[in-house]
Amino acid sequence: MEQELFQILAISLGLGLLVGLQRQHQNARIAGIRTFPIITLFGTLSALLAQSLGGWVVGAGILAIAAIVVVANMMQRETQPDIGQTTEAAALLMYAVGAYLVLGNTTVAVAVGATVAVLLHLKEALHRFVDRIGQKDLTAVMQFVVISLVILPVLPNKEYGPYEVLNPHNVWLMVVLIVGIGLLGYFIYKFFGNKAGTFLGGVLGGLISSTATTVSYARRTKQAKGSSSLAALVIFIASTVAFIRILAEVTIVAPGTLPEVAPPLLAVIGLMVVTGIVAYFTNKEQGDHMPEQENPAQLKTALVFGAIYALVILATAAAKDYLGSSGLYIVAIISGLTDVDAITLSTSRLMQVGNLSPASGWRIILVAGLSNVAFKAALVGFMGNRPLLGKVSLLFGVVLAGGLLVLWWWPAGAASGM
């Protein structure tokens, strides 16, 4: 018991020192390297006393900290009228963190304390990030809140329509997932700006939209003919991230199928990673600006994806009914041309509920991914210059050849036996 108690006190002290160090480095006038550890330890001791004396001790402690903060703030305002409230809020929160170490979950308390330190440290970066966000971006964020927190909870969780495969709640949940992934990549792009390097540009492009990235960079080679090697590399990195994204979607929607689905997909991803590394180190061009990206959280984008996903679900059910499992590959090829996410999510859902075997499911997903790669190569042919087409054809040709070999030669049951 004593060992556990000293461990809690040590964690409390460490979290207080972490936040106090950051505040001291920023010349915070109210609390610094000594005050924050005292505040956190005060919260911990208050919670320990509350176990014997009652919860009023914790409440009295936070009132005492609030009173000290108010008095200190009033004194500082006499000499510095425009003083902020960040340090004061951090002091109150760290008191609560210290108390939660005793009354709640230690891991959660540590995570919150570390998050406070990181948020305080990223002040300038976060301010620059906010400056880069325009009114349209802010509107799109609000739309994402509507998509995920307003619309999703009220949709019925019941099957409708032909074959009874259209579940409004599940369809919209997939919309939230895809828009959320795209929005994450978009705001990382906003954080780093359009001067993101080659590798980061490809990664962000894959998170936001590998197809849009392909179009953007292919068009640029028409004006800047010497940038074909760089454009080909970014396009290929974005496509590699798109395949990783496919595996992530399967992991979220159908985690129980991973022992059989993941190995063949990882084989293709591994081939793409190796090919990308070779292309990266043989590329002699310097990093370039990343083209301006569109915010993926627009309500129109969500509605379009929802419609595509619903159509793919219906087409998948109809193809399986009329043509058997072989008909699903036709759907995968067609769907992969426009949106590989839709067929990935619908196939993952079928595998999760047991309507499709994982052995067939990963092949359908891989066919859709390869179809998408071929489609992007065609886009390069229409929108890019000849040197870019040659480089992309070589890189994508390796992927298509490797993917087809995996489809044909991957031994049945090899994944499930791992």
List the helices and strands and how they pair.
Blueprint: H1 2-25, H2 35-53, H3 56-77, H4 86-103, H5 106-121, H6 123-132, H7 135-154, H8 168-192, H9 198-208, H10 210-223, H11 228-253, H12 258-282, H13 299-323, H14 326-338, H15 340-353, H16 358-383, H17 386-409
Helix pairs in contact: 1-2, 1-4, 1-5, 2-3, 2-4, 3-4, 4-5, 6-8, 7-8, 8-9, 8-13, 9-10, 9-11, 10-11, 10-16, 11-12, 11-15, 11-17, 12-16, 12-17, 13-14, 13-15, 14-15, 14-16, 15-16, 16-17
Counted beta strands: 0
The proportion of residues in beta strands is under 5%
The profile of the biggest β sheet is: none
The total tally of domains equals 2
Mean pLDDT: 82
Pattern of helices and strands: HHHHHHHHHHHHHHHHH
Span between termini: 43 Å
Shape: elongated
Radius of gyration: 27 Å
Class based on secondary structure composition and strand pairing: mainly alpha
Helix content: over 70%
Key attributes of the depicted protein:
single chain, mainly alpha, 418 residues
Q: Mind explaining what this structure looks like?
A:
By secondary structure, the chain is mainly α. It has two domains: 2-121, no CATH class; 133-409, no CATH class. The protein is built from 17 helices and no strands. It has helices at 2-25, 35-53, 56-77, 86-103, 106-121, 123-132, 135-154, 168-192, 198-208, 210-223, 228-253, 258-282, 299-323, 326-338, 340-353, 358-383, 386-409. Helix 1 (2-25) packs antiparallel against helix 4 (86-103) and helix 9 (198-208) packs across helix 11 (228-253). The longest helix has 26 residues, at 228-253. The mean pLDDT is 82.
